[in-house]
């Protein structure tokens, strides 16, 4: 699995439209707010040009890309923490995602109502972010109560959690996201992971651009301005156009995309931004008849990467035989790369590099 990504935002901003563009899952889309109630879940193959280049050389029977999961949830309105709209309980559906894609409406359409009446990206972003902060505040306050009880009863050690939660409470009460808090040590890092706050997750903004041009560049600039201040990346997607394109057969889709000047699909752009945001890299294995792509965190060592393939491979790790992607392509085959001395034998401290083609040697 590459990573999991939760799509959220105000109602009627095109979350499900973009979800369909990304996954071709055919989720319900309609011009009224709160169309989505139960979450839509879609798993997609990660488009990977390097994997295709390797496949042309290796000619395996089977090519397996890495996958990623998208979750499309209900819209979040002002006052959701107090039960407005569909409330905020449904945010629980995206508690466990790796990253959040915050969809922002940058299109005008008289037939598609806007819950706040007009398209004002900065206000919309702020409203949604404020609700995320309030949802986290609820979580943190519950944990504070619990920790206090625990300490009082003398049954456990809750001080460390209590300290961190109080700090979080302070930051959130000021409207700041949990990710803005400077953590003191690894213990706090572990704790904050366990508390699993929404505003602690990495986020990117997705500007949903319309097919019509008027006003659009100004709305996009507004999103970029907010994002820059927060140090958050922005991905531009033409939601409706791409959702329509995703319904076409693959060949036609490529032709139309080119004609419309869409060099990269929203999926490719979002995945690229997500990998950068989460500091993920890909490596490749050829085992038997299968060429396969895998995802690991940048900085992962060879045994950890082996563990992605199989836990036995991590446990019994002996060495990794590595050819860089560039060398593999230049050599034109694994055997030539070997002959030319382009394959290196690496031990357990080797840090996997993006694009590495790896054969793991292990004891069973
Ligand atoms: N004109 C235009 N309409 C769009 C665009 N993207 C989405 N829409 C329309 O906006 C309406 C709402 O789209 P949805 O994808 O259902 O929006 P949502 O954010 O999932 O809405 P909820 O589930 O109700 O929160 C639909 O009528 C879409 O066709 C766009 O880029 N341009
Ligand atoms: Mg929806």
Q: Would you kindly provide a written description of the structure presented here, covering whatever features stand out?
A:
With 364 residues, the chain is of the alpha/beta class. The chain folds into 2 domains: 4-276, P-loop containing nucleotide triphosphate hydrolases (Rossmann fold); 299-362, Beta-grasp domain (Ubiquitin-like (UB roll)). The chain has helices at residues 15-23, 49-58, 121-153, 159-173, 186-195, 216-230, 239-245, 250-259, 266-277, 302-309, 311-315, 325-331, 334-339; strands spanning 4-8, 40-45, 62-64, 67-72, 99-106, 203-209, 234-237, 280-287, 290-297, 317-323, 344-346, 357-362. It has a 6-stranded mixed β-sheet, with helices on both faces. Helix 1 (15-23) runs parallel beside helix 7 (239-245). It is flat, with a radius of gyration of 23 Å. It starts with a strand and ends with a strand. The model has no long low-confidence stretch (mean pLDDT 93). The chain binds guanosine-5'-triphosphate and magnesium ion.
